[in-house]
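Friendly challenge for the regulars: who can give me the structure tokens for this chain first? No prize, just bragging rights.
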Amino acid sequence: MSSSNSKEKGNSLADSMPAHRHGHLEDMKNIEDTGKFEKAIYNYVPLLIPSLRYVNYLKRVFEYLFYTLLFDITMPFVKPLNFFVMFILFPIGALILIVLDIILRVFSFLSIDTSVKPVRDWGVLSENNYDEIVRKGVYELGKPFESYEDEQDGDVKIFKQIRNFNIDMVETLLFLATTVYERKEEYVNNAINRIQKIQTSSAEATPQDIKYIKGQLLEAEKTIVRQAEDWGLGFTSISELNSLGGPYAGMFWSKERKFIVVAFKGTTAAYFSEWLIDFLVQKIDARAYLYGKVHEGFYTSLFPKNDKESSKYYRRSPSMRLIEAIRSKAAEITDYNEQDGPVSVWITGHSLGGGLATLFYTRLLKSPEILGKNCMLRDGLAFAAPIVGDDNFASSFSSRSNKPYETSTTLWRVIAGSDIVPHVAPANRNPKIQRYFTNVEAINYVHIGEEITFNFDGSRPSATRPVLGTEDYFVFDKMSTWGDLKFAFKGSQKKQHLRKPVNVNVNKPLYAFEKLYPLPIRNHLPHRYFISMELARHYFEETEQQKLELKG
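First reply, four minutes later:
Bragging rights claimed.
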């Protein structure tokens, strides 16, 4: 097939789609054809798909370990801790996932629902109405950016950065990060298969082909679009992230409130084969687009794998498709809403999606100009996110997040209790031994961003600065009792007069099998994050007396 024919086919498909869909269409065209054998297995023997993922995972692990030992045969003796983590700890973790996955596949075979529960089913968990939470959250997402406040100390003017953590806004972003799980992947796969069939044929896409592809994509997203419309938002998928049936990126937006939210779908709690990407120990040099070294599995979902691919494929990489979709939608919003100020861009994700959100947020933080004149990068909210990078990645991120001072944005990492995923890679929190950890490649992982941990006993949430953290002020929304967050750090136990805690069903299961999970895995579920935040809601809300005191 000639290149001109290929271009004509692409144009005929693209011309039938909205502008923000063009990048997604190109993205689907660039997904590698899995071949007839794999497609047949997917279509007719879906229970074997996890087995194939495990085989592929083990192949990659053994290949990595083989080359590691080949070029460093003394590792077991010279670097015993490195050897233990790479050759024992992570393989054991993968085997545990295999056993858990087999158990859940049996549940699925017995017609026991193991899908992520939609937000509309969360109403039994809290006395607060989630639609009202979203109404308030959408308002906060569209508020103008506040970069800093001026304070006068004698003759000296102090500039204090504002880092807002509004509980309604954060829960709304959790809802959006959870809602992207509701896409029906079988319809997306059907659309991709038809696109690949068109690409390998000598004929152009027919009107029937175009109608079929559009119909499959609309059917895949129908549930999400309906939920988004109920909240006054729009939605579309924007990238498949180099995979078929795995994580993907979706985009929510509000023309009235002038904001965009990019939400990354994460690992499905009930399908542990998707967790394997968290158990890859390989890092990759990320300096071409990010900083330092980062987790290979996350990196290759967004960027070219190496320098050879970089120049050839960057324009077709998922990260560029995301940026193109954001710019296109921002231009549309700006034309619709001529109010002053750029379109606010927020990044979020849960689980694996939180890791991907972290890397994409870092890319935008490093090169904010790629978003264009119509956009302003706001905060990133990573829920249940695994650790993604080494100490060089973390230190460079911290340095960049403080510049320029007057336009600071924040990456928040939200953790629910004992959730295991944020601690899969053993991150070091002690600066005194950080220098020694960096010499052990397998455990040279360092957290970035501002960490907030919510508990399930109703106690006050804790805030933790990373070892290589930011040096600026860290404050909550001005309309909250956590004004300067001093109590969240050691040395301050100031008592607050707070509202009565919200009634929350802490142990209410949404899954038939949920209580079978060990607590560290159970707390990874999205609705458990909602429960933990609702238990702490009263720490963020003022009493009427406190509001009067502020006005006075």
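The first helix runs from residue 3 to 14. The radius of gyration is 24 Å. Your move, everyone else.
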